[in-house]
Specification:
Strand order of the largest sheet: 2-1-3-5-6-4
CATH class of the largest domain: Alpha Beta
Largest sheet: 6 strands, mixed
CATH architecture of the largest domain: 3-Layer(aba) Sandwich
Number of strands: 17
Number of helices: 19
CATH topology of the largest domain: Rossmann fold
CATH superfamily of the largest domain: P-loop containing nucleotide triphosphate hydrolases
Shape: elongated
Number of domains: 3
Helix content: 40-55%
Length: 445
């Protein structure tokens, strides 16, 4: 029987965690499913019974502290960090762990960056706390760096660490970086997608450090890391840290272990998954199935380029689809549609919303091969209700539009299903549809 695990947080959109966990499962031939479970804070109490049915789960923002009061036991590392990112179900009791420190140390090791000497940590949140613990346990000299005017925000963490480790810890602001340090760690979201033009350090400031570690992994090369690369510094993003955290979680759940090379291979696969976007996502379905809304939300969530075949044809002819039909006829429109499909089949990393008739008349087989093709399934009654006031649809004009819709949908349904490798209920809300599509996309090989 498959064990069920997952990631808990809110909101959850595109995550590499299911992909990474699946790759790690394969190494040790573990029979398990890993899913994403997103719910708002007000539902947390009622979800505890569900969580206790899982074999284990990971926790991300904003619940790394929230979960603690629901746990039956807490690992000392998690107690020190004051945050939990991994939970194991031990005979119905929930035990909390924190694998951030393990992941950070493994990420440094894989990049050949020693944790010694002087360390400057940018940030003062939960990730910064964990990293500072690791550095202080290695007898490093730790300094925290904040934005201008934010020095006081790090005081609570500094007092905590000084009391625990019996050392003095300095706090400086970003404009005060002038001395030499062995290592810089960015423990903030500065530079993370979509704000990829930001960096916690200037190009000149990077020269103050021997090595740079950025806990961000999307993009894989942040502006900060591009500066480090230019100057020949040792550097690493946070992807190997993420994979090592996942590996440590599986060690907790199943008692398995992973070699350096195994973690490295999964990290490389995750990087390829993150960067290559080697598949398009093609949405097919009848008019009124929600392709326009879903495709826009999907493209925004996944940071993928959006293409709408009808819109591309309209741009090419500088007129609406109905005007193209009226002036040139359906044959001309279908030819233009096939030309667009051929062009898009040579692209990658796009979310493509198809006109309702494209799958029926498309002659470009590669268009659907280079894609996760998703059929947005909807009932004739729902289509009519959504479009009954739309005067731009020729099909809805004249007598008995409900009958026309039902007949045409019946004729097309089999074709939609034949070109699609995934079907969703298009009468669900757009957010749930997007979540299901992303889950399927994450599991593509």
């Amino acid at each position: 029987m498959k064990k069920v695990l997952g990631l808990i947080g809110f909101p959850l959109s595109h995550s590499l965690s299911p992909f990474i966990q699946k790759k790690l499962f394969e190494i040790n031939q573990i029979c398990a499913d890993y899913s994403m479970f997103s719910f708002p804070a007000e539902q947390f109490d009622e979800k505890i019974a569900f969580l206790k049915e899982l074999h284990g789960f990971n926790i991300t923002l904003p619940y790394k502290q929230t979960i603690i009061k629901y746990l039956d036991d807490l690992d000392p590392t998690a107690a020190d960090c004051g945050a939990v990112n991994t939970v194991k179900n031990e005979n119905g009791g929930l035990v909390g762990f924190n694998t951030d420190g393990f992941g950070f140390l493994k990420g440094l090791e894989m990049a050949g960056i020693p944790l010694c000497g002087s360390v400057l940590i940018y940030g003062y949140g939960g990730v910064a706390r964990t990293i500072s613990y690791c550095a202080l346990e290695k007898n490093c000299t730790v300094t925290f760096c904040t934005r201008r005017g934010s020095r006081y925000r790090a005081n609570g963490l500094v007092l905590e660490l000084q009391e625990k480790f019996g050392v003095q810890i300095a706090v400086i602001e970003e404009n005060e970086i002038k001395e030499h340090y062995d290592l810089f760690v960015n423990a903030t979201p500065v530079g993370m997608f979509p704000n990829c033009d930001k960096s916690p350090l200037t190009r000149e400031q990077v020269d103050c450090f021997d090595a740079v570690f950025d806990t961000i992994y999307n993009p894989t090369e942040t502006l900060l890391l591009s500066y480090a690369k230019e100057q020949g510094k040792r550097f690493s993003n946070g992807l190997s840290m993420l994979v090592a955290q996942a590996a440590r979680a599986q060690s907790i759940w199943f008692g398995v272990s992973f070699t350096h090379e195994q973690i490295k291979s999964v990290t490389l696969a995750a990087e390829k998954k993150l960067n290559s976007r080697d598949k398009n996502i093609v949405l097919v379905g009848f008019m009124g199935s929600g392709k326009t809304t879903v495709s826009a939300l999907l493209a925004k969530t996944l940071n993928m380029e959006l293409a709408d075949t009808d819109s591309l044809i309209e741009q090419r002819y500088n007129m609406s689809v109905s005007e193209i039909f009226k002036r040139f006829g359906e044959a001309e429109f279908r030819k233009a549609e096939n030309d667009i499909a051929l062009e898009l089949s040579k692209e990658s990393g796009r979310v493509i919303s198809c006109g309702g008739g494209l799958p029926i008349y498309c002659q470009c087989k590669e268009f659907f091969k280079n894609a996760l093709t998703v059929y947005l399934d909807v009932t004739p009654e729902c289509v009519f209700e959504r479009l009954k006031n739309d005067t731009t649809r020729p099909l809805l004009q004249g007598d008995n539009p409900e009958k026309k819709i039902a007949k045409l949908m019946s004729e097309r349904k089999g074709i939609y299903e034949s070109v699609a490798n995934f079907k969703v209920n298009a009468e669900d809300c757009a957010e749930n549809i997007v979540k299901n599509v992303i889950s399927a996309y994450n599991n593509l090989e």
